[in-house]
Amino acid sequence: MESVTKTNYQKYMKENGIHNVPVWRIIGFSGGNMAVNLYMGLTMIMSYYLNGYVGMAVVLASSFSTIMRLWDGVTDPMVGFVVDKFKENSKIGKTRLCLLLGGILLFVNSFLMFNVTDKLPEGAIRPVFFIIFTLIYYIGYTFLNISAHVGNVCLTNDPAQRPILSVVGTVLVRVMRAVMQMVVAALAVKHGSLGSAGLFHEYWLIVAVIASIGIAVAYISITPKDIAIFSETSTKKKPEIKFSDYVDVLTHNRPLQMMIVTRATDMLANTCKTSAITLVLYGIVAGNYKLSGGWTMYTTVIGLVMMTLGIGAIGAKFGLKKAMQMGSWGVIVMDAIAILIWMLLDPKTLNLPGFTNGYGQDFNGLTTFTVLLFIVTVVGGGFQMITSSIIPPMIADVNDYEASRTGKYIPGMVGTLFSFMDKLISSFGPLLVGVGFAAIGFADKFPDLDTPYSPQLFAIAMLFYYGLEFIGAVFNVVAMKFYDLSPEKMKEVEEKIYKMRNAA
């Protein structure tokens, strides 16, 4: 482990308070964000486990996810306050503390939730057991999630590097998400159902191993920057931090308010894209659920290229705000076209090399539906990746703005306030999906691979897969009109913080 000396940290310093880091450390630190998304993936298919082994009906299982996300949001302010009160030293800083606590809590509790519950006697003991360890699971999730907000602040404040935080993080997360969708689809076919205990046992092991490796790499990558000089306005006398600071931040930090609107609406749409909605769209409407994994991989890889160009070129040259605006308009247009394609053409003709279509026919050339949907999915996915992946560096800018405004570096509180409001709104996603299914006759059991097609299922799939994302992008466009952290403004912010440190 590198020793924290003056010579050691000065090699990262540039003029006027700007500090950066070798790109390999940015790449390595994104392993923590990858782990967060992998563990989130477990909760995205959790409703099937709740329905099949914990003994909950469809609406109750969906409500459980909503309640747990609300609990996750409630724990955010408490954990954020504790993290910002933590006094950093040369042995461990705030970011590494969050990585350690989050990683351990998630590993242990997810094992108990998905590997032990279904082996317990049926009855009240199963839901009680599952609920207890799910509550602790989400505390671990909060710690791991905060590590990104805290780490992004001290990792770099270089305007040329902060967009890279999004590029490398999103590439890693999106590729891994596509791979895991293929894994889930393959396991569902292998075990015959998304509700199989065997599926959850295998999927948990894969997630836990990969996530643990990502956390370890992130820990090593952040070590030399996880010190007070990069995350405080004064290393001698730290400003007093009070719980009431939450109220001041929320009421006076306009850029944070706009980021909350942007993120919450996007996440509401994202949390509605549950495994059940994906199954309906590809397994029932298109007629081949296994195809969803290959489709996701094909479209994600190309979409990542577009996202990288969007953030790298636009974000670095014109600022993060411009990248968000461009991405949001792109999502609006592409989602509208995608809905028309699904409505006007035959979804069962969707096919790719190595797969069969919804009629059971082997690949025999690209169909009109496949070509048009592929183009729209790739372009729209690229725009959507821009809007979601630009959030981390924008929140890092918001943290710097708060430090320049009040003299307090409180990335834990700012990050968790952002997360709390985000989760408060987006937590209703799974519940909305459950209510939607119940309204069309699926109150006791989710649609599965053997469920026949119906116009009602098609309408539900369009609403939750594209419709809410469209609405979220409209909110983004409006919010960005009031977000004023331009490149010029951020230069003023960093210079002000630099003067604070010199004065201290």
Relative helix content: over 70%
Q: What is the oligomer described by this structure?
A: single chain
What structural class do you assign from the helix and strand content?
mainly alpha
User: What is the total number of structural domains?
Assistant: 1
Write the layout of secondary structure elements.
Elements: H1 6-10, H2 23-44, H3 46-54, H4 58-85, H5 94-115, H6 125-155, H7 162-191, H8 197-222, H9 245-252, H10 254-272, H11 275-285, H12 291-318, H13 320-344, H14 368-389, H15 391-406, H16 411-426, H17 428-439, H18 455-480, H19 487-503
Helix pairs in contact: 2-5, 2-6, 2-7, 2-8, 3-4, 4-6, 4-16, 4-17, 5-6, 5-8, 6-15, 6-16, 7-8, 7-12, 7-15, 10-15, 10-16, 10-17, 10-18, 11-18, 12-13, 12-14, 13-14, 13-18, 15-19
General description of the model:
With 504 residues, the protein is an all-alpha fold. 74% of the residues lie in helices and 0% in strands. The chain has a single domain (28-224, 243-503), classed as Growth Hormone, Chain: A, CATH 1.20.1250. The radius of gyration is 23 Å and the shape is globular. The chain starts with 5 loop residues before the first helix and ends with a helix.
